[in-house]
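Note to self: keep these together.
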Amino acid sequence: MRALFLGTGTSVGVPQVGCRCEVCTSSDPRDKRTRPSLLLETGGKRLLIDIGPDFRAQMLREGIDSVDAVLLTHAHADHILGIDDLRAVNNRTGRSIPIYATERTHAAVRRVFFYCFESDPYASRPRFEPRFFGEAPFEAEGVEAVPVRAIHGTMEVHGFRFGKFAYVTDAKVIPPESLALLEGVEVLVLNALRFRDHPTHFTVDEACAVVEKVGPKRAFLTHMGHGIMHGRDSARLPAGVEFAWDGLEIEIGDG
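Structure:
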């Protein structure tokens, strides 16, 4: 199993438009963060977790020409607005793409991408198949995915566990029953917006506290804003925890 971080930034990306702070003007490529997304390759399939507005650029940057399925954590703009760019994947592969999400998330997708559900045969639009999941494990193109419910402010979001790997983003609270679903993972990815408190996202310290509870061999932090500088702040992390960056690849044992 291979995980590729396509984007590790927050909803506005890093650098932020018009910002001249130390991080936004950093020359370290690890401080250039596009909107959050991860590509998982396992069992001969490519699963994309979230498809934000930087999807096209991320795919071109990494030389990826296809995905087998998309899994959505929730329906905020930085996690769904790349759906329209699935058209190029449809055209190249000749296939519709299944998108796995909750009923609430699919309802939001239908509102935003309403034209995909209209009958005009000449419209240029992405072709995708809505697939629904709840709290139970499900198969995404033959790959078992375990939904991991979390709280993002007042909103419910879902991370996913695949064997010994788990990805949870945009969380502020992971309930005890969801923490139990993470037991035994070897690699855990969590959001960590900044060091200062935030009402809807984990801080770095809060994410590290979850890592300590779960006890994976390795943990990576993503969905980071411009309050985190990779080179400067990595020393503040506990052993086994790392800041991810756009283009980082990691291998995870199957099982």
